């Protein structure tokens, strides 16, 4: 989906009623920074405990290691030895930190896993080789991949193609890029029908009721642009459960301390010592590969948390001080008046 994301354009300005609705929701879900908000993690409090000095000493030792030494130490500890130097260094630091906190009162009884599941989404949308400024991207593939946060495995997936309405004829460029043929979208259901199926699939998994979950995307475009645009085109209220998500590019860059240029899908995979599995720009395959990156980050000690939300029709950052909370239970999509 990366090529389409680069050329994605904003749609018409959000209507007043829609904007009010989004601002109210965003305020209720802590997208605006609250200076009086207490840190959500008990590990963000007192760092005077001696265990943090021990962690700092270990970090200093790791920082002085070359790549061969880092790889050898990972092998000794039975950790994954794949990845570039920065990834190996972060993997070792996270391992030692976790081990020391587990044996220290500084851990304060907290758990590393808040969510039971993470749902990865990577839409495919209509596109032209050179999209005009007013081009409206319509979702033509709706994939989801479910990660079990307790086993760190992909446990299920969902995929439906979608019939475009504004631009029903796919461009030759779009067909070559995504592998989605004209026949596939002609025989597909409309977005409203597909969204109903997606909601039913999420409900069958008891997400938001029995289990805590959230969404994860490769960038801001899937929820902030494509889903927002599609809901307006289909006269559907933007689903409450999709108003907040994890942008894995931000999480990856912050965790491994790499520049934005190193957070593209292929770069993230290669830096972790992996190769793309499947067909690039197939939404389901993209989602599976994004899930593989998320799983490796989790194994390396990253605590994935919501870092973006939809506010006034645009994606906004969620401050680190915001409380951790799961997405609400999915509801049947409602038509907009």
From TrEMBL:
Keywords: Cytoplasm, Exonuclease, Hydrolase, Magnesium, Metal-binding, Nuclease, Nucleus, Phosphoprotein, RNA-binding, RNA-mediated gene silencing, rRNA processing
Main location per the UniProt record: cytoplasm
GO cellular component term, pick one: nucleolus
PROSITE patterns reported in the protein's UniProt record: SAP
Entries under Pfam families matching the protein: RNase_T, SAP
Catalytic activity: Exonucleolytic cleavage in the 3'- to 5'-direction to yield nucleoside 5'-phosphates
Biased composition (Polar residues): 1-12, 27-43
Coiled coil regions in record: none
Origin superkingdom: Eukaryota
Region (Disordered): 1-50, 317-337
SAP domain boundaries: 62-96
EC number: 3.1.13.1
Compartment(s) of residence: Cytoplasm; Nucleus, Nucleolus
An example Gene Ontology biological process: rRNA processing
Cofactor: Mg(2+)
Molecular function terms from GO: exoribonuclease II activity; metal ion binding; RNA binding
Designated name of the protein: 3'-5' exoribonuclease 1
Source organism per UniProt: Carassius auratus
Annotated gene: LOC113038743
